[in-house]
Structures
1.
Amino acid sequence: MSATKGQPLVVVIVLNWNGHDDTVACVESLRGLRYRNARVLIVDNGSTDDSVAVFGRRFPEIRCLQTGSNLGFAEGNNVGIRAALADGADYVFLLNNDATIDPDALDRLVEAAESRPDVGIVGPKIYYAAEPRRIWFAGGTISALGRLGHEGWNRVDEGQWDAPRETGYVTGCAFLAKRRVLEKVGLFAPEYFLLFEEADLCVRARREGFRCWVEPRATVSHKVSASFGGSSPQYYYYFVRNYLLFYRRHVIPIRGWAARLALSWYLTRLFAFFLLTPHRGGWGKLAGAFEGIGDYLRGRFFQRRVHRRLGEDSS
């Protein structure tokens, strides 16, 4: 992945937190990229295992930044993005450490971004790693009332999502952003910590006239929720708290009282589902969701139980 004259410089950021086995597999897949002007940057997000030592042995040629503590997906990636921009990156490409990438994917993503000056953020088609033809992401939807969704989710790929097109948002699992977007719009909002931060950035980019794009010829495989359980109380804590924050910022200012009524109805349905499914851990999920609502109302964000209020200095 040495520099090639004429190709935009892409810095690929892989965020690691106590997951060196996944990260090693991810970086090995990046070594197979055909795109030549790419540099890999590992950001270790306060791991307590021997991740940093493992990377030093396996990838001595690759820079590894250490955050010193777990800053979450949003600010952990921001550390890498700032370093990439300082190094002159034309593009920043975020790739989850539990994902692997097809050798042609980065060429396809950059080609899509370069083809239209207003395309600012591009994502690939993403498959479940355990089922290579089952889709996890083929585009992102944001409803009028702020509900996020994945096009093609859990469907077998039969070519029905093969057309490159504009999309509502791009998942942070595999997220290519132009330098110009990040300089104009800013980075991820760190108060989310994790979940909704990429949708928030995409909405802000679209308001500035940039388009979000999906390029299905580029493909990635994803293990999905390797770093924390996607149906755990912790997941629902961040999901509900951050959904409320996203809703307040991007839906209520447009939809007003209709948005507030719709939100009440949605939360009622969600809690009813938890109550009716104790055999699926519904009580624990309900506790996580209520904790998330409580912290949202108190203005407590960032990491769960290591809170700061918005605008409060972290030092």
2.
Amino acid sequence: MNVDTYRALRAHMPSAPRWAPSLAQLAVNALLLSAALFFYGFDGPAAYVLSQVLAALFLHHSYLIVHECAHNSFFPRTFLNTALGTLHGVFALLPFQVRKAEHMQHHNLSNNLDHEPTLQRAVDTFHVIERSPRLKALFNVMWRCWIPILVINEHIRLWTAPFKTKDARPRRVRRQRMSVLITGIGVALLVLAAGLSNAAAFLPAVYLYLALVEAVNLPHHFDAPLYRGRPKKLWEHDAVTESCRTIPFVSKWLMMNFNLHTEHHLYPYLPWHQLPEVHDAMIAKDARYAPAHGEFDWNVGMRRRSFEEVFSRYLSEKPSMAA
């Protein structure tokens, strides 16, 4: 997208989040949790399976609330975004301040092999896997069985990053370490309040949640071009992201329009409920912005392929010195 088109679209977009849509999302979040606990109280495998699916949707919905709060675009007040992001970070198993810093970095440096640390770590990891026949065979099984090893690895890194960082800004490091501590205490209190047996009974929901995070996130950047050199300007981010098709009701109320990822990267300060308006305006100007696939069908196609096929372009890049 050129800068003139970008500015013309932006000129008609209000950027402040509205209270009503976000309060409605909190109601959806509470409804998912209540429904999960309601069905968990019944005997029988059908009720248990339904409780796990609903709990997984609740956890993923909390993940999306954390995402919006990281952009300060869920509520009009920054302190409310921080408080709500911290609370829902407990459910999403994400220290809010660490996730926020990592995510802002991702927005600035998406798909840049020289500057985006998450991408370079992925390239290093894929090279380590490629050099070991056993790891490659194991990864192939996990990939084809929808085991979310990539997201599990990234979650672990977010919990440990503040204690390994070389960041020269001590206040930022302290804030992130405090976020890890608060989130850890929150998770521990949840487990204690529920009881170990009840908490363990929801482990399938945690697995489904992590699998959902991986399945939803990968299509947005995986096929977009990798590049080196100068990080792209905001209006150039349509080159490094892809949107996915909208599913009526689901995309709005369960996914918070997260599928409209190109629009989100072009205008990262816009709240979730304004992205469809941007999407329609972009397609009106250029039909190539119409999504080519959905998250589910993308994953179904990719999960049938081997490690070498799926990650070949990452393996063609040089690993960092750390690898």
3.
Amino acid sequence: MRAAFVPNHFLTLDHYNAEMVIHPRIGRSLVWSYRIVYLAPLALIIWPPPITRLPIILAALWPLWIMSAWLFESAVLGQRFGLTVTQKARDTMRAADAGDADAQYRLAGYYDRGEEGLQAADSLSDEARRWYEKAAAQGHVAAQFDLAEHLMGVLSGEPFLPDETPALPKDSIYHEQRQARVNAAMAARRRAAHWYRRAAEQGHVTAQGRLGEMYRTGNGVARNATAARRWLSRALAAAKAAEGNEDDGSMSVDEAEERRADIRAWKAGLDQLNGRKTGANV
């Protein structure tokens, strides 16, 4: 049962934990109560009881005891009550709640990558998607592209599956579940095409190339050679115009290598559409 707090991320971190909502003050009170308990043996060392050997034993085991208690607090209590969340993340949550698209995009990234004290976990992938969608709906081009990449499973390896896929009964057999996953994956690709298109229309180079390849292969959209040529040509022209960015420090080494790989793939796709042979199809 969820606690009846107002769902304000800055105050309650409602979406930090999918299982419960707890006010940070309550969380801090619980954690400090736990700290008092695990520090209690210190009193027996400072003010030893009549049993003289007990303080010696406690003093010898004290480092191990503190380390175990600290690990438990960090791994269980900190994550459970959201006390590892940084002030930067809290400020971003507040700005995201107020409708700031940049903050929504940053917050999605924090959830996605497990930064600023927000733990990266499967249970939080929906939360990352929710903030990507909010920023994308406001026209944030990077959010539109990243949301499409997640829907395709490019970034995470697992696609963000849409919520509109019908739920299966609990006793559904394996083949029904497999078909449901296939249906969800196809729906995710259709939504990815939508967000690639939105980003491509705003000039996002990689989104243009992705959309061109989707039209060329019929992946998530109806196959359309004319649209494929248009978007692949745009992507290649824009990539060529931005070639100098690889040397001015605006792109990392990995990003530059990924861009070169994309360009090779887009050229091969465009050559195939135009009936020209390349090294990939000779």
4.
Amino acid sequence: MTTLVHREVGGGIATITLDSPANRNALSVRLLGDLERELVHAIGDDGVRVIVLTGTGPVFCSGADLKEQAPARPAHDAPVTASFPEIMSLIWESPKPVICRLNGTARAGGLGLVAACDFAVAPDSATFAFSEVRVGVVPAMISVTVLRRLDQRAASEYLLTGEVFGAARAAEIGLLNRAVPAGELDAAVAHYARMLLLGGPEALAITKRLVRTVPGLPVDEGMRQMARLSAERFTSPEGQEGLRAFMEKRPAAWVPAPGEAAPEAVRGVPAPEPAPGDAATRPKPGGGGS
């Protein structure tokens, strides 16, 4: 049976591609199963530092496969709940940053995937809609990730009305990081991916959690916890390697070597130039660091 999700790995980046354009990459039971499998593989692969989620065709994801949902059945047997909650949790809790590279439009459940990712970039021609209420259902599962991203007023506006909105508006309300011309999409994704590769894997995983948890801590308790964490990280093996690399003006051990193969979504775009004195500054060819 043909797989509906593909994974390509290179240069520390795993690109996971939804490949069911005939039904606009709808969240069918088969696609969900394939997507869960590929996410588990990518997260468990020590050679993967960053995950890019994308799709084929003009639509990133149209949401639930309504043909599968149509037959009447008990609520606990609804196909849409097959593994979708687990998939969004996998993305949300992944210790490796996940970038959503929207190849096009997204609707309903597809926006749950977008919101679960740490970064989201779309072509400025893409459109979006939380269309659930218009077919008499609710954006239930996706609200868990979506409402953590969207401005509250905007969430009420678009989840209640089902109105279509554009990529610029999606960036304005927090659903996207950036909306770019289609020809600049891969460069924008590559920028984020290559910058993330410069960070320590453990430091990235911990910082990803901090962004979500620290705002909910009382100030005094937050200060105490973060002081302990800061001390732990400065004395950790990864922290010590980062400090040595900085002092020696060389790339840290976790930074991929120049020229390593990368998946198509980020191939052909130069690595970012590190700032002078940055830990990622590479030695000049044929000699030591400058």
